[in-house]
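Support request, please re-run this one:
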Amino acid sequence: MYGKQNVLSTGKTNSTQSWLIDLFFMISLLGIFYALWIGGHALFTPDEGRYSEIAREMVVTGDYITPRLNGVAFLDKPVLYYWLQASAIQLFGLKEWALRFWPAFMGVLGCVLTYFTGRTLFNRRTGILAAVILATSPLYYGAAHYANLDLEVAVLISITLFFSVLALHAESTKRQVLFFILAYIFCGLAALTKGLIGIVFPAMIMGLWILMLNRFHVIKQMRLVTGLILFLAITIPWYYLVQQANPEFLHFFFVTQQISRFLTHGDFNNKTALWFYIPVVLAGFFPWSFFAIQAVIKNVKAVWNDRKSHSAELFLLLWLVLIFIFFSIPTSKTVGYIIPIFPALALMVGHYLDSQWEMGLTKSFKAGVIGFVIASYIFSMAASTITWLSLLPITKAAIPYLTLASSAFLIAATIAWKLLKKGKSARIFYCIAAMAVTGLLILSASTGVINDKSIKPVALSLKPKLKPTDEMVAYYKYYQDLPIYLERRITIVADWTAPDIIKKDNWLREMWFGMPFQNTKDWLINDEAFWQRWNSNKRLFVIMNKDYYATFAEKAKDTIHQYGSYNDVVWVANQV
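Re-run finished. Output below.
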């Protein structure tokens, strides 16, 4: 509960020195942990290729108002993420590690502020445990190594909620005002990254917290006018400027992309069941999932018995439950949407483990450890079986990594079981944390062999051949990472008047949505226009899926003068 002071080591828990020591080691170790192999593999598609290309085009064109993908307005999301990516390109160059710099940075920042919140609300040990738990959660770690918006918006929303709960429990007016101001700033940044959820989540959680505790006097302390001014100062300038540049933006962004996506059963990808996020959270929070169940039960009991004395725990529960329900309602779901609940879950588990630290092995803690041991043995056996019997299409290059991961789980489960018999609760935590770090580093190191869908090898082979006067064409399939690796706009051949475009949530609809915002007739062309160019004096390089090649070659006849292939990709040219 609020006010209790426990530590992992001896010393004055609230001294400036202990804060500085914790922050120094946490930032240093997490920085190294999150930086390893961050640039060791090609961009994943579609997300990393798409969002990184938008940032590259901002840098090239100097237009930081209208995001563009392959020259076409891409107004599905607000602009902050693209600005961050563009800044990384400006500072470090067009490199894979640079494109993943901001997700990794935000990942470390989220862990550090989880520590800060846990220590301020509860105690030092809770803060440290919560930060370690969050940093070693596979879904959070993976998102911090993936160049898309999910991790950034999750961290910005979480920081907003961190400062909100700290303000609500501040011991002085000065600290309360500071925390509320910081909450409003990060709320604005979250809205500038993802839109309405940046403000909806904090308002929803704080509103229900105030209602359940009957603390309406807090509203007067929240400096709402100041908060509104800060929020609008951060968000309105870009929304105004992009609307001026693209008059249909506000309707498209708020109605089509924000409200309709949530309220309707429209034609969006990833249609899933209502319970989709249950296994996602259990797997994405492993190996802490079993302790998360215990922690949630503990918090529910505490709040049920006396919610006024456990107001911080109530806030964390509302954070977890409301966001989980919110994202479970729409039929369109992606794995990364649920990440905003992970910091709250990490705080609850950290606080739960802190309560178990000096108590020996309680029944609930034993149950969590046993669950971890069983799950680890199952994973180890499954991984070994898959490898030996070739049950899944795994490349030979990936087998050593799978074997290492299997061994790590097996060793950790065995050690944890022995420590459980000896009653060493603290050492069990260290064992599980070490296994999590090892497993995630193995995963990070293996991404180079896992990612076999990138067009990078083809792009790098074509790049020296391409002259400024040549035209690069994608024939009936747009490869999201092709423009960024070639560093040029691509001509795309497709049926842009097909009546079913609106019904398919894919690259074709992304481009089609953006076409009305500018004239794209020069580079978004149909089949007839393509063959006119192919038979002209202009040299064209054309890339396509191998399934299209037979039909293409029949039409091209004897005009193919260059040919190459890679996996399921074929490229040709009409001149030497």
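The chain has a mean pLDDT of 92. Strands lie at 68-69, 72-73, 471-475, 491-493, 524-525, 540-545, 562-566, 569-573.
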